[in-house]
Write a structure and sequence with these properties.
Arginase, Chain A, eight-stranded parallel sheet, two-stranded antiparallel sheet, 10 helices
Length: 321
């Protein structure tokens, strides 16, 4: 199928419909079910049955849609109007089952596979971090094992909780065990303590993950950006952004907040450092609107989504600024 012109897949003009009006969609984009129409299909994954502390991320997609009315398309740091280079649409929500991790992941995986097989990039808004395993499974079948850029306070390579193997803290351990990742091309950004035990990061380190502790980001953001630039040309990557990677002063609406994280500016700057990577899938997870009545967390998540898309757009435009 020939994809429609970019002009047909842009946010509705605020001159036609005010930002506070109309049916909310991600970034005020048109709804599309068929991924063959688009370059990036943004879908909600409203599942938080894998969380071990505060639930509420099932409402993340709805909250981000609401807040994304304030987003805009031109990104001066990248020098791009993202919708000139990417056909983007809202693909609706995956029909998750609140009490079943397995059935929910199967549904998300099927949707991710449909999008990837159509030659588009799946972008999921969670949901807790458990949902990331599903697109990784689908994309690894299409592209082979993936590199990973992971923003988080936690490594998510931990063991079972209450004898449950699969939850939001085990997702990247499971991805390694299933052969979904190129472990030498995994970078985890913003990790910090305190930890439950001194061996909490052993699995990640033993498998070759590059763990960028928050102290490194605070000491030299430029050095971390240089590391990200070094990933260019090293194959296909998945990007996963857990909002608890950001300090709860900026993003309190998350399930497992950890003080001492990235500022919103540091997070946005690091996302801009992804230009030049071959990103084939992404997600934003652990967004719990009910824990932030101000709406600041969902607005930041929506802004991060546009910055992630702008990095893809700049990459496709051939620009590394």
């Amino acid at each position: 199928m020939t994809k429609p012109p970019t002009s047909e897949l842009r946010p509705v003009s605020t001159r036609e419909v005010p930002r506070f009006a109309g049916v909310p969609t991600f970034l005020r984009l048109p709804l599309r079910d068929d991924p063959r129409d688009v370059d990036v299909l943004i879908c909600g994954a409203p599942f938080d049955g894998g969380t071990t502390f505060r639930p509420g991320a099932r409402f993340g997609p709805r909250g981000v849609r609401q807040s994304s009315a304030l987003t805009r398309g031109f990104h001066p740091a990248q020098g791009v109007e993202l919708f000139d280079h990417l056909r983007c649409a809202d693909g609706g929500d995956v029909a998750c089952v609140p009490m079943s991790v397995e059935r929910s992941l199967a549904a998300i995986e099927a949707r991710a596979a449909q999008i990837a097989e159509a030659g588009a990039v799946p972008a999921f808004i969670g949901g807790d971090h458990t949902i990331s395993l599903a697109p990784l499974r689908a994309l690894a079948r299409v592209h082979g094992p993936l590199g990973l850029v992971h923003f988080d306070a936690h490594s998510d390579t931990f063991g079972p909780a209450w004898d449950v193997e699969l939850h939001h803290g085990t997702v990247f351990r499971k991805a390694v065990e299933e052969g979904l990742l190129r472990t030498g091309d995994v970078v985890q950004l913003g990790i910090r303590g305190p930890f439950t035990a001194p061996n909490d990061l052993d699995f990640a380190r033993e498998h070759g993950f590059r763990i960028v502790m928050i102290d490194e980001i605070k000491r030299s953001l430029d050095a971390v950006l240089a590391e990200l630039a070094g990933l260019r040309g090293r194959g296909k990557f998945y990007v996963s952004f857990d909002l608890d990677g950001i300090d709860p002063a900026y993003a309190p609406g998350t399930g497992t907040p950890v003080p001492g994280g990235m500022t919103s500016w540091e997070a946005l700057t690091l996302v801009r450092g992804l230009v030049g990577l071959d990103v084939v899938g992404l997600d934003l997870v652990e967004i719990s609107p009910e824990h932030d009545p101000s709406g600041g967390t969902t607005l930041l998540a929506a802004t991060l989504l546009t910055e992630l898309l702008a990095s893809l757009a700049a990459t496709r435009a051939g620009g590394v600024r």
